[in-house]
Design goal:
- This protein is of the alpha/beta class.
- The chain has one domain (about 5-225): 3-Layer(aba) Sandwich (Uracil-DNA Glycosylase, subunit E).
- About 35% of the residues lie in helices and about 10% in strands.
- The chain is built from eight helices and six strands, in the order ααβαβααββαβαβα.
- It has helices spanning about 5-10, 15-30, 45, 85-95, 110, 140-150, 165-175, 205-215; strands at about 35, 55-60, 115-120, 125, 160-165, 180-185.
- The strands form two sheets. The protein has a four-stranded parallel β-sheet with strand order 3-2-5-6. A two-stranded antiparallel sheet has the order 1-4.
- The two termini are about 30 Å apart.
Length: about 230
């Protein structure tokens, strides 16, 4: 885990819910394949430090097929092709920003380094079994991750944008004190639900407008860093 996150999240590791979660994960690893790999469960924390977060994009649980999940919600590494959810994310980015060209790669690391925290409500999943690690404790932990962002003490912090896609993400955000922050909610970008409100939600454009208004010119996320060079 990235050092900026360890400082604020260490108290969670000794709490009963997290100890039970660890026991569950150890048992799961003994009898099943789990995604992402152990060294990638917290990769989101190494790519986006706590003080750098401008936008949080909250998904559900990691991709559950081989070669997909690597610790950032919705992201996949080459040579894996972008899954349907990510294709819909790219589609919305293309709508929001005419200069955005759809990448062939599904690696979202470049925007993670710009302050976009790609987080799932559950950080692990059993292979080929969606939501198999839901309600095991991860939701409590990721709720604390979000609180750490929302309660940063930096006096100059003017808030962040939270994008909650799908009911699990929205239920997590409903327990938070959003206060000075911007919460954007819609259907999940999955091909099964994207037509119910994700496509056309304008979240990326709205986020940049809000960041510019609250943080000043140049505070926007340059989503075109994903463009094929």
């Amino acid at each position: 885990m990235g050092t900026s996150w360890i400082r604020v999240l260490t108290p969670e590791f000794k709490k009963p819910y997290f100890c039970k979660l660890k026991e569950f994960l150890v048992a799961e690893h003994l009898s099943h394949t789990i995604f992402p790999s152990v060294d990638n469960i917290y990769s989101w924390s190494r790519l986006t430090s706590l003080d750098q977060v401008k936008v949080v994009i909250l998904g559900q649980d990691p991709y559950h097929n081989v070669g997909q999940a690597h610790g950032l919600s919705f992201s996949v590494l080459p040579p894996t092709k972008p899954p349907g959810s990510l294709k819909n994310i790219y589609k919305q980015l293309s709508t929001d920003f005419p200069t955005f060209s759809t990448p062939k790669s599904g690696d979202l690391t470049p925007v993670a380094k710009l302050g976009v925290l790609w987080l799932n409500t559950s950080l692990t999943v059993r292979a080929h079994k969606a939501a198999s690690h839901s309600n095991k404790g991860w939701e409590v932990f990721t709720g604390q991750v979000l609180r750490a962002v929302l309660q940063r003490k930096d006096e100059e912090d003017a808030g962040v944008v939270l994008m909650a896609w799908g009911l699990p993400a929205q239920k997590t955000c409903a327990k938070l004190n959003i206060n000075k922050h911007l919460l954007l909610e819609s259907a999940h970008p999955s091909p099964l639900s994207a037509h119910r409100g994700f496509i056309g939600n304008g979240h990326f454009k709205l986020a940049n407008e809000w960041l510019r208004s609250n943080h000043g010119e140049g505070a926007e996320i340059d989503w075109t860093v994903l463009n094929e060079k």
